[in-house]
Amino acid sequence: MGFPMEGETIQIHSYKHDGKLHRVWDQTTVLKSTSSLMIGGNDRTVVTESDGRTWITREPAICYFHSQYWFNVIGMIREDGIYYYCNISSPFTHDQEALKYIDYDLDIKVYPDMTYTLLDEDEYEKHRQEMNYPEAVDRILHTHVEHLKTWIRQRKGPFAPEFIDTWYERFLTYRHA
Fold it and tell me: Which parts of the sequence belong to the DUF402 domain (predicted)?
């Protein structure tokens, strides 16, 4: 599996546990690419929902994916600070088509002051039953929710103070190249 080169543009595909395509981000610039870590940046990219509806992201974002963690993090750069949207998901994979992961409904929204809210617990429970999430997956997901909360509190990984600014600067160099 060839990993994309830094500076390349890729798509991001999220799926549901039943294998159905959930959402596609049309263009994300690869800022770092290894077998275990992918950092990307995008701004005003087209997003296509499973029902065909499209929308365009409103602000620049830095995306963090890891092959060992059951979450991914999107840092959105807004006028009043950085907001994070964290998807509880499978670790990412990549093929020639796109970076891919399974979205498991639970999300954590983190505000510029680093307070956070766990979202979509009802949606998770509904889909867990409808799609028969295995007990082992349920345990892993809840463990990684707690792991993610620890990272937020400790300002670790993508929540580190300079992380988004550093990678956004890199993103801008590719945009203006």
Answer: 18-156
What is the rounded CA–CA span in Å between residue 139 and residue 95?
A: 27
Mind listing the pLDDT tens digit for each residue in 116-154? 999 999 999 999 999 999 999 999 999 999 999 999 999
Domain boundaries, the chain: 9-167
Are 10 and 28 within 8 A, CB to CB? yes
Residue listed under structure tokens 């409904």: 105
| Catalytic positions, written as ranges | 23
26 is in an annotated binding site: no
CATH class of residue range 9-167? mainly beta
| Burial bucket for residue 143 (CB in 10 Å: 0-12, 13-18, 19+) | exposed
- Cα separation, 29 vs 11, in Å, equals 9
Give the pTM.
Answer: 0.96
Over the stretch 88-106, which tens digit does the pLDDT of each residue have? 999 999 998 999 999 999 9
Residue 72 assigned ligand-binding role = no
Q: 109, 144, 103, 101: which is closest to 124 by C-alpha?
A: 103
Q: 103 vs 2, 63, 145, CA distance in Å?
A: 23, 15, 13
Is 95 part of any known ligand binding site?
Answer: no
Q: 165 labelled as ligand-binding? A: no
